[in-house]
Amino acid sequence: MNSLWSPTALRLEPYTPGEQCNDPSWIKLNTNETPFGPSAHALAAIQAEATNALRLYPDPEARALREAVARFHHVDPDMVFAGNGSDEVLAHAFAALFRQDAPILLPDISYNFYRSYCGLLDLKRTELPLTANFAIDLTQYDGPNGGIVFPNPNAPTGCLLGLEHIEELLERHRSSVVIVDEAYVDFGGASAAPLVARHPNLLVVQTLSKSRGLAGLRVGFAIGQRSLVVALERVKNSFNSYPLSRLAIAGGAAAMDDTRHLDEIRALTIANRDRLSRGLADLGFEVLPSHANFVFARHAHARGSALQQALRQQRILVRRFAQPRIEDHLRITVGTLQQGDALLAALAGALALEVSQ
Hints:
The protein has 357 residues and is of the alpha/beta class. It is built from 11 helices and 12 strands.
């Protein structure tokens, strides 16, 4: 280790992002980007903003984007916080709202960035095991804590919690902030945003990277009562007063307003997800019920690492997490029908080779 590093840098365990590949001959099903692209209205708004005005700083309050989010979710714009992707929004939320005197509660199989935030901010954490069916059991989330966070649907499993369970948790922990990370909620879940009005301890975080096809623009937001949003703003303005560019604000606002495009992407993704899940089941995979734009699947007779490598040899990327209970699962992004069929064909060939050996 470098002797010039700070103690913080020395103790960090950075998040490992999914592999990026710009070669169009590869099929990229490892980072949950939509294959269907962003709204034409969003692209037009971005292009219209690419003028001489780029010499000026953007609106530090991202007001146009916050108003668009507020229109979509039927909340006041002052209940919306905008940031440079939901990862930044989550990082600010951890810093602003989670306490260091008690452990943060989170699922043991979940979004790995939560662990990185805890390391960066020196927050203690307690990881609670998913059930045998890989579901989050919120009845485990009792006792003193410095805050609670989980994705819904969960990542990487894709399993969904009903809002009634989330509301019960909020009632039990009125003195703790509960962050619900809804990166994938548009693909089959109901947002917890309507619960914010009657639960001052709830913060809902979403992104425009998935269902709105803007992963490259980096736009995320949170919805909470004003008392929570003010805390996020204090952290943001102590870190970077201008986190969102003029292009991101304009494109993000237009994307939020284009509900027709959202509905089209959602319908296509769900149809392709169902077809992919059936195809995997036909090949002998155990496929968890997904409410996201990916599936999480394991084959009873083949190692996940071997299947991932076999797919890579066919120029197909999928994600695998080398941790207990899920090391043999593959997380597969829902792509186009053609990409799904190519994946299934490659897996069939890999499995046939496994049997012959």
